[in-house]
Amino acid sequence: MVVGDIVEEVEVLVIGAGPGGYVAAIRAAQLGKSVTIVDKAELGGVCLNRGCIPSKALISAAHHYEAAKESPFPGIETTASFDFKKVQEWKQSVVDKMTGGVQQLLKGNKVNVIQGEAFFTKPNEVRVMQENGSQRLQFQHCILATGSRPIELKNLPLGKRVIDSTGALSLDHVPQRLVVVGGGYIGIELGQTFAKFGSQVTIIEGLDSILALFDKQMVRLVEKNLKKYNVQIETKALAQGVEETEDSVKLTYKDKDGNEKTIEADYVLVTVGRRPNTDEIGLQDAGIELTDKGLVKVDQQCRTTNPNVFAIGDIVPGPALAHKASYEGKVAAEVIAGKPSIVDYRCIPSVVFSDPEMASVGLTEEEAKKEYGQVAVGRFPYAANGRATALNATDGFIKLVANKENGVLVGAQVVGVEASNIIAELGLAIEMSATLEDIALTIHAHPTLGEMVMEAAEVGLGEPIHIIKG
Amino acid sequence: MVVGDIVEEVEVLVIGAGPGGYVAAIRAAQLGKSVTIVDKAELGGVCLNRGCIPSKALISAAHHYEAAKESPFPGIETTASFDFKKVQEWKQSVVDKMTGGVQQLLKGNKVNVIQGEAFFTKPNEVRVMQENGSQRLQFQHCILATGSRPIELKNLPLGKRVIDSTGALSLDHVPQRLVVVGGGYIGIELGQTFAKFGSQVTIIEGLDSILALFDKQMVRLVEKNLKKYNVQIETKALAQGVEETEDSVKLTYKDKDGNEKTIEADYVLVTVGRRPNTDEIGLQDAGIELTDKGLVKVDQQCRTTNPNVFAIGDIVPGPALAHKASYEGKVAAEVIAGKPSIVDYRCIPSVVFSDPEMASVGLTEEEAKKEYGQVAVGRFPYAANGRATALNATDGFIKLVANKENGVLVGAQVVGVEASNIIAELGLAIEMSATLEDIALTIHAHPTLGEMVMEAAEVGLGEPIHIIKG
Amino acid sequence: ARRGGKRRALATPHVRALARKLGVDIDEIDGTGPVGRVTEEDVRRFAEGGRGLAVEPD
Ligand SMILES: Cc1cc2nc3c(=O)[nH]c(=O)nc-3n(C[C@H](O)[C@H](O)[C@H](O)COP(=O)(O)OP(=O)(O)OC[C@H]3O[C@@H](n4cnc5c(N)ncnc54)[C@H](O)[C@@H]3O)c2cc1C
Ligand SMILES: Cc1cc2nc3c(=O)[nH]c(=O)nc-3n(C[C@H](O)[C@H](O)[C@H](O)COP(=O)(O)OP(=O)(O)OC[C@H]3O[C@@H](n4cnc5c(N)ncnc54)[C@H](O)[C@@H]3O)c2cc1C
C-alpha cells in the first residue's frame, strides 16, 4: 500500500477498541450504521487486557488460594499451594476468552476492524499508521475512545524493577518484597493480591488514608484484612526517588513526620493515577478542544467541539471506569444514529475488589448533607445477617443515605463479602428514585445478603427488626 | 403454679417464635404494644433451628470443602478433608448465634418470652402448658404463627433410618448411601450437600422432573452438577414402602415404567412437603376457620375469622418461605397497632441454594404469556460475563420477562453462581414497576455479575451488546 | 451535574428517555407520582399541552 494514496470513506469511525469504543461500535452497527473501528493494540482496550479483567482473574485466584490455605470453616481442613506461572497462564486464557469474544461480537455486528494507530489530519479525516504503511479514512462521524495510560512520575521512572499496573499484572513470579506507591483502588487490589500470594507488601500513600475516596469505616475493614497479611501502610508519605540494582530496588520516601526513609524491595509498583491519551492524536488539527486537565471537552451527548466527533470513556471528564465508558459509548452511537440520547445517569457505581469488597453508588452521607440538608441514614451490619453468618463472613456493613424530606435514596455504600453484587440493587433504586419505604416493603429472600438492604432501609425509617434501635 | 388459677391479661400475644412470630412481636413492640410471645421449642422456629440457617451453613461448608477438593483454578493446587462432627458443631454454633440474636432482639424490644405450648380455650384466651404446670393468658390481640412440620408418609414411617429434614440436618456422620424421597428444593439442597461430602445419593421424585416449580433449563444445570457427584435421579417414581434393619434400610419403589425396584441405603430421607401446625391448637374453640387444605383463612390484613386473631407464615396460604412469614408478621403487627397495612407485595423471590444456585421472582415466561398475551424476554448467559469468567463459574443464565405492551418487568429467573444475590435487584425492579429500559439504562459496575441483568434487559429490548442478536 | 441550580425531576430512566423523545424538559414537569415522581402519564400530558422545551446540550 502506498502512503496516503487513497482516501477511504467510512460512515462511523471509532478510534480505540476498549469498553468505550467497542461497545459504541456495536451499538452504532445495530442502529444501521456502517462502522469501522481502529485500535493500535489488542481489542478490548486496557480493561480487558491490562485492567479490570486480568486484575479480577488474579484476585479471584488469590482469593481461592487463600480460602484453601486457611480454611475459615471449622471441621474442614484444607491445604493450598500454587504455581504462579500456571496462574498467569490461566489469567491469560481468561483475557483471551474475553477479547476473542469482542472480536466475535464485532464480526457478528459487521464492524470493520483495522489494526493501527490513528491521528487526525483534518476535522473529518484520520491517518492510520499500520505495520506496512498507512491509510487515510474520511468519516461522517467519529467516536474517540483512546482511553488512558498510567502516569509516570519523573522521580520514579519505569524500569526493570520499577513497574506500573501493566507490569505487575504480567509478572511471572510472586515478588518476595513489593512496594506499592499509591494506595488507590488499583494499588490496593494488586497489593492485597500479591500479599495473599505471599509477598511482603508495603504501601506508600500520600494522603492520610488509603482508598481516600471511600468512607473511613469501610476502609478500616480492608486495613484490618491487610494487617492479617502483614502489609505495612505508610500514609502521608512522599516517594522521593528510586535506585535500581540488578536484583533489587531501593525506594526513598519522606514519612509522615518528614523523616527520609529507604526501603528495599524486589519491585516498586507505581499506581498513582492515569492520564488521558489525548496528546498524540492530532486533536488540534480536528478542532477538538481539551479542558485544563487535558480531557476532551464534551456536551451532554458526548459531542466534542468538532460537531462530527464524539468522545467517551477515560478521555472525558467523570470517573475513569469501564462501565462509564460503555454507557457513554452507547449514548454517542445513539446520537449519531439520530436518537435523542444524552448522558443522563443519576449515579455510577464504583467497586473495589479488595478483601472485603467495597462498593459505593450515589452520594455519601456527607455529600448528601451538603446537597439536601437533612438526611436519613440506615446502617446494617453483616454480623446480624443469617447468610453472612452461614458463610462465615460477618465483617462488613451496608449504609443507605436518603433525602430526609421525601425519603428518596440518594446514596449507598457497602463493604463486605459480595459487595460488588449487592450494589446493583442500590444503583437501580437510585435511578428509579426509590424511597427507603419502597426498599423496606420489597420482600427480600431469606437467607440472603440482600436482606441487609431491606433491613438497612428499615433502620433508616426507624423500624429496625434485626438490630436494636440505638 | 396451680393450673388455671389466675388469668393473666396481655395486650398482644404471639404464638410461635419463628421468622413470622418473632418479627411480628418486635414490630408490635416497636409500635408501642406490650407483647408476649410463646413458643414450645427454641426461639427462631423451624427456620433458624431446623430449616434455612442450619441447611445453608452445611451447604456453605460443603461448598468450601468441594472448592478445595477440586480446585477450579489452574495453577492453584488444593486438598481438603473434613471432620463431620466438627462441621456439625460449627453449624450448631451458627444456629446458636442466630437464636441468641433473636433472644437479644426480643429482650431489647421488651417482649415478654414464655416457653410453653399454647392452645385456645376461648376466642380471646389461651392456655399455655409448661414444664411445671400451665397458665392462662387473655389477649386483646393474638398473632398465630405456629408454622409447619414435615409430612410423614404412611408407607414411609419415620424411624432410626427413615428420617426427615430435621433428622438429616443433625446426622453426626456422612451416610455412605442416602436415598432422598422427594426432589423439591429441600431434598435437592440436602441431597447435593451430602453428595459433596461423599454420600452415594439417589433421588426418588414422583413428578417428571426434580425442582418441578422451576424452569426446565435452569434445572438442567443443577442436574448436570448432580451428575458430577454420581447422584442418581429417578423421576416419575413412586416410593412404596421401607424395611429397616439394624444397619441399613431398603426402599421399594415403582420406577417410571411401573417396575418395582428396591434400593438399599444407610438412610432414607423423606422430603415430600410440609403440613401446617393448625391441628392441635384448639382453633375451633376460638372461632378460627381453616381452608380445605388445612390452612388458616385470612383476609388481606392477615386477620382470621376471629377478628382479634391474626395468622401469618406457613399456616396461611402462599409459599411456605421464611421471608413471606416475616413480611406478614410486620403487616399483622402494624394492623394491630392501627396502621392501614395490608399484604400488598407484587412478588416474593424464591431461592434454592443448590449448586449452581437458582432464584426466581414474579412470573415465568409461560405464566406471563397467560397473563399478558405478548411478552418480551431477555436471556443472557454467564459465559458472556467477565466477572463470571474471572470466577471460573460460567454455567448459568439470567432471564427477564416483561409485559410487551409497556415493557414492565413481570418476572425474572436466575441460575448460576450468586443467583441468590442477583435476584434482589429484580425483586425491587418488579415492585417499582421498572421497565426493561429502566434496567438497561441503569449503569451496572464492571466487571460484576449484575451487568448480566442490564444486558438481559438490552436483549429483551432487541439491542444486546455482549451477545449476537439471534 | 445540576442544571441552572434547579432540582432535577424525580423520574425513572425510561420516563426521562420518553421526555427526551417527546422533546420536553422533564425538570419543568410537576410529578403526580409517589413523592412527586414524574410519571409517564405526566410527561405525555405535558407534551400534549405544548409547553415542551427541546432538550439542548449544555
Ligand atoms: C489495573 C487496572 C484495573 C482496573 N479495574 C477496573 C475495574 O475493576 N472496573 C472498572 O470499571 N475499571 C477498571 N479499570 C479502569 C478501566 O480499565 C478503564 O476505565 C477503561 O478501560 C476505559 O475504557 P476506554 O474505552 O475509555 O479506554 P481503554 O480501555 O483505555 O482503551 C483505549 C484503547 O484505545 C487504543 N488507542 C489509544 N490511542 C489510539 C490511537 N491513536 N489509535 C488507535 N488506537 C488507540 C488503545 O490501544 C486501547 O485499546 C482498571 C484499570 C486498570 C489499569
Ligand atoms: C430444611 C429446610 C430448609 C428451609 N430453607 C428455607 C430457605 O432457605 N428459605 C426460606 O425462606 N425458607 C426455608 N424453609 C422454610 C422456612 O423454614 C419456613 O417457611 C419458616 O420457618 C416459616 O416460619 P413460621 O414463622 O411460619 O413458622 P416456623 O418457623 O415453623 O415456627 C413456628 C414456631 O411455632 C412454634 N409452635 C408451634 N405450635 C406451637 C404451640 N401450640 N405453642 C407454642 N409454640 C408453637 C414452634 O415451636 C416453632 O418455633 C426451610 C425449611 C426447611 C425444613
From TrEMBL, chains A, B:
One of its GO terms (molecular function) is dihydrolipoyl dehydrogenase (NADH) activity. Transmembrane segments: none annotated. It catalyses: N(6)-[(R)-dihydrolipoyl]-L-lysyl-[protein] + NAD(+) = N(6)-[(R)-lipoyl]-L-lysyl-[protein] + NADH + H(+). Residues 11-329 form the FAD/NAD(P)-binding domain. Its EC number is 1.8.1.4. Residues 348-457 form the Pyridine nucleotide-disulphide oxidoreductase dimerisation domain. Binds 1 FAD per subunit. Belongs to the class-I pyridine nucleotide-disulfide oxidoreductase family. The active site is a redox-active disulfide bond. This is Dihydrolipoyl dehydrogenase. It comes from Alicyclobacillus mali. The gene is lpdA.
